User: Which sequence fits this backbone?
């Protein structure tokens, strides 16, 4: 059997399933039909390739690698790295390393083509990556060996996240390390002067030079797939350029086998695929992108109220052929993947979006997702209320998450130069109550705090409130590797600074000022930061060296924008924030030393505590 396209079970699971299957056959069709659908779905979900009850299932391989389509114009092989892998007791083999090149072009307001912020530095870079699937349950370790094709020295190689406790051995331009667990997203940095892009003082508000990694490299070690299509239970349509609109519309699962696909070049399919390559799915439809499949296009939901959609597999979806159109209200797309309620996004690599990343509505589940963005408007995962995100790798170049009562855990995040990890938004929508736990933030590239950088930030209007009844927003067990200007950036919307008191107007809608009464006035806060470690904080040139920013607003003294009509005493408070065991360069922040790193406005904040 082809190990890319056929699910394999561990020996233990294999014998259990064989016994279970024989029991079902022996006990007859009546019992079979009376079984719970959940039990049968759990059984059948482990089978692919026909799902017949008499099919002999092969055990899961310790390691699954993928052959990608690499002809001209398809997936690109890395120009900078080779990667080899050894399974305990077996011969070393080379595996394909893919490369994403920087995308900096954007459509200007007059229709001409310009470049993104920081394009001069971004376009010197590359991002190489290797996705594999690993079953550690068979007690065999993987040893990866990486060779720099550019001759970068391995004398000072960084393996991140450091919490993985991986020990590297280097020689010449080669480095190796051993892995004994899945759900690992490993960045390998050859810290060589030739592998650095230096951003100078003053650029982007930087108060000190920043060294960005020139040729980035990640190894994605995913667990064995537990979600796979099953032809015995589902109507699966295998995508090709010849498949009809009606077949796509009637499919439960649209399946991309290993290979290259360009939905735009393949041509439209009525309401299912538009002329730009946007694939639209309805409620309950799913898209499976197999490992080894490289798909250019984007994914849309039919209606906002759609539910139970999924995008899963081990393949790649890329939006690299599309232009970023930040000033165009009629832009081609707002998201690379757009789904409805109760969406499942599992295992896929979504990269090179021209705008935002993966945006479902409420109750979404993300597992083992890898996201890569280049533009300064590449928000990462933006699900709605009560969504769960675990074991994901995200390199976003704007806000990673919005604070919609999310449950985020066990993730590796690599911030590019723009955006925050968690934002409370830019308007007056009442959001909050997310819980983050066990998060590694590696090689952060923020040059300054600006108006939207940091671990948590707000850019909200005065009507904003944390949601009534929502739990406290918690950021716990967060580890920053590298230097940052700061990590807390809580304040009102900076568009208020453009308010013209002589005309009573603000040209930057939707900022709504002044509010009609104090009853409309909100506040920011109810936040706990616990067990947060920052290796180095250097401040910036805009809000004071070595300072984080926590400030509310009042009509007099802090802004020219009136907060509440005819009430100069009104205050938009930032309050009820606790920092518990937060350290910078190993020093715990306390109420006594907080002014070394924080700029806290005493007139518009209250109950800001350091424990």
Assistant:
């Amino acid at each position: 059997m082809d190990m890319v396209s056929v699910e394999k079970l561990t020996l233990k699971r294999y014998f259990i399933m064989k016994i279970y299957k024989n029991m079902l056959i022996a006990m007859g069709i009546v019992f079979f039909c009376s079984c719970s659908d959940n039990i049968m779905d759990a059984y059948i979900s482990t089978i692919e390739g026909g799902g017949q009850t008499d099919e002999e299932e092969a055990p899961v391989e310790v390691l699954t690698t993928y052959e990608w389509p690499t002809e001209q114009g398809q997936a690109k092989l890395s120009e900078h790295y080779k990667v080899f892998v050894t399974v305990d007791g077996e011969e070393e083999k080379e595996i394909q390393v893919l490369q994403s090149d920087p995308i900096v072009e954007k459509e200007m307001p007059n229709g001409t083509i310009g470049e993104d912020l920081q394009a001069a530095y971004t376009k010197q870079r590359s991002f190489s990556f290797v996705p594999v699937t690993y079953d550690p349950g068979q007690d065999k370790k993987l040893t990866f060996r990486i060779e720099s094709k550019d001759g970068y020295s391995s004398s000072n190689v960084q393996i991140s996240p450091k919490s993985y406790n991986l020990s590297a051995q280097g020689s010449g331009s080669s480095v190796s390390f051993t892995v004994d667990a899945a759900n690992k997203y490993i960045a390998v940095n050859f810290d060589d002067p030739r592998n650095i892009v230096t951003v100078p003082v003053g650029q982007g508000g930087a108060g000190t030079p920043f060294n960005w990694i020139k040729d980035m490299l990640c190894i994605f070690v995913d667990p064995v797939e537990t979600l796979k299509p099953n032809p015995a239970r589902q109507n699966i349509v295998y995508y090709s350029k010849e498949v009809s609109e009606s077949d796509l519309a009637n499919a439960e699962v649209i399946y991309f086998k290993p290979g290259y696909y360009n939905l735009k070049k393949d041509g439209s399919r009525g309401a299912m695929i538009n002329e730009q390559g946007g694939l639209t799915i309805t409620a309950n439809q799913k898209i499976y992108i197999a490992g080894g499949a490289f798909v250019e296009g984007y994914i849309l939901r039919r209606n906002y109220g759609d539910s139970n959609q999924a995008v899963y597999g081990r393949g790649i979806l890329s939006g690299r052929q599309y232009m970023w159109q930040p000033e165009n209200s009629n832009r081609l797309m707002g998201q690379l993947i757009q789904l409805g309620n109760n969406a499942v996004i599992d295992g896929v690599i979504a990269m090179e979006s021209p705008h935002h990343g993966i945006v479902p509505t409420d109750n979404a589940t993300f597992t083992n997702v890898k996201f890569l963005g280049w533009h300064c408007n590449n928000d990462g995962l933006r699900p709605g209320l009560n969504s769960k995100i675990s074991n994901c790798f995200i390199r976003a170049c704007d806000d990673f998450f919005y604070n919609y009562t999310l449950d985020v855990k066990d993730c590796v995040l690599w911030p590019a130069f723009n955006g925050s990890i968690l934002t409370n938004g830019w308007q007056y929508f009442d959001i909050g109550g997310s819980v983050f736990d066990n998060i590694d933030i590696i090689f952060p590239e923020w040059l300054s705090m600006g108006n939207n950088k940091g671990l948590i930030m707000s850019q909200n209007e005065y009507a904003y409130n944390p949601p009534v009844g929502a739990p406290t927003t918690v950021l716990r067990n967060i580890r920053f590797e590298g230097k940052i200007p700061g990590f807390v950036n809580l304040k009102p919307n900076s568009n208020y600074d453009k308010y013209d008191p002589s005309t009573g107007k603000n040209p930057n809608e939707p900022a709504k000022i002044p509010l009609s009464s104090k009853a409309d006035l909100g506040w920011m806060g109810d936040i706990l930061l616990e067990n947060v470690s920052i290796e180095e904080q250097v401040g910036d040139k805009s809000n004071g060296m070595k300072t984080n920013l926590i400030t509310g607003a009042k009509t007099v003294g802090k802004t020219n924008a009136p907060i509440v009509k005819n009430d100069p005493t009104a205050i938009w408070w930032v309050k009820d924030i606790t920092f518990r065991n937060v350290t910078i360069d190993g020093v715990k922040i306390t109420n006594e030393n907080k002014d070394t790193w924080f700029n806290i406005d005493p007139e518009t904040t209250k109950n800001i505590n350091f424990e």
Notes: The chain is about 10% helix and 35% strand. The first helix runs from residue 11 to 34. Residues 1-57 have pLDDT under 50 and may be disordered.
